[in-house]
Design a protein that fits this description.
By secondary structure, the chain is α/β, with parallel strands linked by helices. The protein is 51% helix and 14% strand. The protein contains 15 helices and 8 strands. A 5-stranded mixed beta sheet has the order 3-2-1-4-7. Strands 5-8-6 form a 3-stranded mixed beta sheet, sandwiched between helices. Strand 1, helix 1 and strand 2 form a beta-alpha-beta unit. Helix 5 crosses helix 13. The longest helix is centred in the C-terminal third of the chain and has 24 residues. The radius of gyration is 21 Å and the shape is globular.
Length: 364
Amino acid sequence: MIELSIIVPILNEAETLPALFAMLSWQERVAFELILADGGSTDGTAALAEGLAATSTFACRLLHCEKGRGRQLNAGARAAVAGTLLFLHADSAFPDAQALRRGLDTLAAVIARRGDCRAAGRFALRFDVPPDRYGFGYYYYECKARLGRPEGIHGDQGFLLPRTFFDSLGSFDETLALLEDNRFAEAVRREGEWLLIPAEVVTSARRFEAEGLYERQILNALIMNFGAIGWDDFFRAASGIYRQQDITGRLRLLPFFRLIRDLLRQLPVHRRLGLWYRTGVYVRPNAWQLAFALDVRRNFRRGVPAGGGRTPLLDWFDRWYEPLTDHPPGRLAAAGLVWLWFQLTMLRLRVLNEGPQVGECPLN
């Protein structure tokens, strides 16, 4: 009897599929099916998937659906037969042969404690990076993902949850070109409980390596902010925000900053100020990441494994920062600091003469 349905959205993933099938074939003590939801691959992914499925040791189905991660994930969920779903990325891997078994058992224990099915698990994130390329940036994001704070859980950790809980949440938002995993993760937080499964999921760092870790995380921060405050003008005007993996290249930030500046200039002053204020409202409670980064840097220098070590600055921050800043002046101060950061960062990018390479302009 199949107890787990693994749903993987794919689009031009011919390079990653053999490793995905090999990794899943090593999993022990779990009966699962793999559902590949293809959004219109053009690199032979579909044919390769059918060939791999024909010789796999587990059940596998290939779905053809409309492009869009949310639509692909939902299509996979509709086709699933198991009572528990795992939404996974194609470039993910489990080093532990019993990772799936640990996930199911941990989730079952939490559900039994709660007395309802409103719980979801995610795996401890680790990046697949050569030792000479592994630095503080990767370590920080591994630690942050394990912490599980608001806005810190993403699809690269894998989402494991009961089918009934998934259905009650209303599935993934298909209207979003991106951030569908973040929105879903926050819905889980509001309606139930997130748990950290005691097993690692290794995710490829190929996007960060191709685009640049700093550049991608700066753009991700802008995307998260604009998504949270509902500034859809940015998403309508920008393209290439999260380019397909097989065509990605070095990410250039200056065109995005100029786009934001130009869009703001088109707005009446009161709307412009309102956007900056809402940005302050969003950024202020997320300032804990600065204290956390200092704690994590100390642990990184001491060789503490990701997710371990003490966080005294974060503890102090949590105790004092919120009551001292959770008011209009605090939000205004956060807005002002973000505005200053934006201006200085754009100035720095201009001084460095950073610009888009051929084919990389983010404007429609």
